[in-house]
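Reviewer comment 2.1 asked that we show a complete input and output for one of the modelled complexes. We chose the nicotinamide-adenine-dinucleotide case, as it is the one discussed in the main text.
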Amino acid sequence: MSASRRLDGRIAVITGGAQGIGLGIATRLAEEGASVVLADIKQTEAERAAARLLASGLSAVALPVDIGQHESVKALAAEVDRRFGRCEILVNNAAIGMDTHIETMRVEDYQHVIRINQDGAILMTMCFVPLLKKAGPGRRVLNVASIQGLRGWPNQLAYAAAKGAIVNFTRAAACDLAEYGIAVNAIAPGFVDTPMSIQPDGSHEYDSDWFRDIYVKYGRIPMRRFGKPADMAGPAFFLCSDDAQYVTGQILSVDGGASATF
Ligand SMILES: NC(=O)c1ccc[n+]([C@@H]2O[C@H](COP(=O)([O-])OP(=O)(O)OC[C@H]3O[C@@H](n4cnc5c(N)ncnc54)[C@H](O)[C@@H]3O)[C@@H](O)[C@H]2O)c1
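Response of the prediction step:
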């Protein structure tokens, strides 16, 4: 990381900012001078993360939100408006993982994944457009999609459907919001080592033999390693920076080359 503080004075709201990729992105944006809002359903974890950033001399606050609930999203937007009066950067990162197969998936599980992973990002953007329009230069929405929004994947039906929707939501919102100088882009991470990849029994998804064989031994991740949250932070910063001012409606894969192989 080489902090240039090119985001000085900008307010950045990151959903799911308490841990994993969201915290990795939030940390980089804060190192670049942004005041970051860690907006998360896990309030205690978000407060701890914000305290760590503050202790490093960065500007951070934790605010609660359940992005699957419209009232909660509206309350977050109202609180950000009250505290800051604007928002330059919105990062729609929060999501949940769930294995779902088309033959066995419960309708309630499907709807739950869609409500959080798809509707959550769309509701957040709808509620934050007024704050983005009140912001200074550098207005950005960054969605966190997934390689699973670009490729088929077994046993991931609901998650993949939601991430595919995020990909095209990014393009459609970019068209609607360009007239306000708001760029809308996405990163599509590949396989990243975060708490999301820890299985219910405590084992690590990416430690399983079959996963390592297919994706590392047989080269389906050409860079032959899984990603880290910090690997997502640089591309996310680029898309949130003034260097990307003529970039909108784009999906940037950040996956060690995985999407180039299939
Ligand atoms: N880890 C991967 O391999 C991977 C790969 C591709 C894409 N992604 C995407 O990256 C993003 C971050 O994933 P991660 O791996 O860091 O996951 P994670 O589980 O470590 O973090 C997700 C964060 O979102 C929060 N969250 C969940 N539901 C929420 C809700 N309803 N309202 C508010 N906050 C909520 C959680 O509390 C958590 O802090 C997600 O969009 C995920 O789909 C992850």
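The chain has a mean pLDDT of 95. We note this here for comparison with the apo prediction described in Section 3.2.
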